[in-house]
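Troubleshooting log. The previous structure file for this entry was overwritten by mistake, so regenerating from the original sequence record. Sequence copied from the archived sheet and checked twice against the printout by T.R.
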Amino acid sequence: MAHTMIFSNMGEIHARLFDHRPVIQQEINLFIREFEEKRNDRELKNLKSSLDVCHQLSNDSLPGLTGNLATLLPQISNTLTAANDISTAILEKNASKQEDWLKSQQAERTAQWTAFMECMCAKSAAVDEEFQADVRLSEQYYIQLEEKLKLTPSPQS
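Regenerated output below.
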């Protein structure tokens, strides 16, 4: 008799632990109540309106859009080609102006460098002449000193 009680208790414990049917049934009922009763088929209405919009776009708007695309695409392509040609001409014109400007700037810098180098050469030549003049004056001074030394009698004689 004790064995039967143990087995029946084990059956109840097993049913409570592993039988999820009542819990799942409650969750399903709650889910149905939430979507059907509380929301009043709002999701279904939204899905139907989305389907209507998609249907209208695919049947009504899409053929018109493809027709417009077929007629307007060549015009757009021609306009873009013309714009590209105009911009290329502007770039080429600016490129030649820029090249001329760069050449003039280079010529100006070359002229400035030449003038600077001529000025430096002139200053260097002036310094060299001044140095040579100082060297000659020093040589003359020492020559005169030597002559004076030769002319003066030595104190021992």
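The mean pLDDT is 84. Archived copy saved in two places this time.
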